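User: Just a sanity check before I run the rest of the batch. Below are the structure tokens for the first item. I only need the designed sequence back.
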């Protein structure tokens, strides 16, 4: 093209390359009407182990449309893709169901970021040894707070009763009406097995209290089951993650060996009081920001008006409220 011809060009002669976004992006997400329901039983580095209603155990990844939606052990999820459970197959989690309960924790009492440990469990089984190691009331109190706030029923499971009597410890929790199961290391946990039947229950306890012994008695093939879950994330073992194990008689038990600390930064005093209907109505009349601990910390707390009616129960409630103040009695 000569110099004179170039000067005759205008914008209609310019070739415009079409952009990549020529079609408007749709916000409509697929409904996945064919999704099958499953329960998450293990999590490891972007892979979820899920138990299908058919009994198959499937490895799945989170679908792109879920974004960063958290998916934890106990979640009821919708799955599409290969749900056969055959080796080297991968499905997709496309839905996460509404949770009926959550066990939450923070790293410590100043950490603003809460983590959901287990979803949809109906019971929190607090495993505490009566001796070797000695029981820690701070651990029990913090578990009670977390269970009341998360919608789980707390159950106190006392192990090693052949080494010490449970009487003095139980006296501290009589006013709270917490169900108690006492076990011995030389006996089968028949009462605990009956309590767990046909439910989803979460077990929590310090190292050395006998929790692993209980799990192995409740689920004879527990080690094999954990091995299946640990194969999800390229062979890394999941001993620091919650794992759900199917009980032979029906139901699930979620083992939580990795919880070394139990921060309660996400729980407010009002969250705790709401778990006690006999105190909740009076607490609504308390001054703004009331911690419900009573004088001198909280002058004007209306719960003080209830002392003549339920002194022991109020003392127990306030011990739970005070347990939010430090980690010394819980951390390993």
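Assistant: Here's the designed sequence for the first item:
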């Amino acid at each position: 093209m000569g110099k004179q011809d170039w000067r005759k060009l205008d914008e209609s002669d310019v070739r415009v390359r079409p952009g990549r976004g020529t079609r408007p992006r749709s916000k409509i997400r697929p409904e996945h009407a064919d999704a099958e329901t499953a329960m998450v039983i293990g999590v490891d580095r972007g892979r979820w182990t899920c138990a299908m209603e058919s009994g198959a155990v499937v490895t799945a990844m989170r679908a792109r449309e879920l974004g960063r939606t958290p998916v934890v052990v106990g979640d009821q999820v919708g799955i599409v893709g290969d749900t056969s459970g055959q080796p080297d197959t991968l499905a997709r989690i496309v839905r996460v169901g509404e949770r009926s309960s959550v066990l939450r924790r923070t790293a410590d009492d100043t950490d603003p970021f809460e983590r959901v440990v287990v979803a949809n469990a109906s019971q929190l089984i607090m495993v505490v040894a009566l001796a070797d190691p000695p029981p820690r009331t701070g651990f029990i109190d913090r578990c009670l707070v977390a269970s009341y706030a998360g919608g789980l029923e707390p159950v106190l499971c006392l192990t090693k009763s052949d080494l010490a009597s449970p009487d003095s410890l139980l006296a501290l929790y009589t006013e709270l009406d917490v169900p108690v199961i006492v076990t011995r290391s030389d006996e089968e946990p028949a009462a605990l097995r009956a309590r767990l039947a046909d439910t989803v229950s979460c077990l929590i306890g310090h190292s050395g209290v006998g929790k692993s012994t209980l799990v192995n008695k409740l689920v004879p093939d527990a080690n094999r089951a954990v091995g299946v879950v640990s194969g999800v994330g390229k062979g890394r073992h999941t001993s620091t993650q919650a794992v759900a194990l199917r009980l032979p008689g029906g139901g699930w038990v979620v083992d939580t060996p990795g919880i070394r600390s139990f921060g309660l930064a996400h729980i407010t005093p009002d969250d705790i009081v709401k778990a006690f209907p006999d105190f909740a109505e009076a607490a609504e009349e308390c001054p703004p920001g009331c911690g419900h601990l009573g004088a001198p910390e909280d002058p004007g707390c209306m719960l003080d008006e209830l002392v003549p009616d339920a002194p022991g129960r109020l003392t127990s409630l306030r011990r739970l409220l005070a347990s939010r103040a430090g980690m010394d009695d819980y951390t390993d």
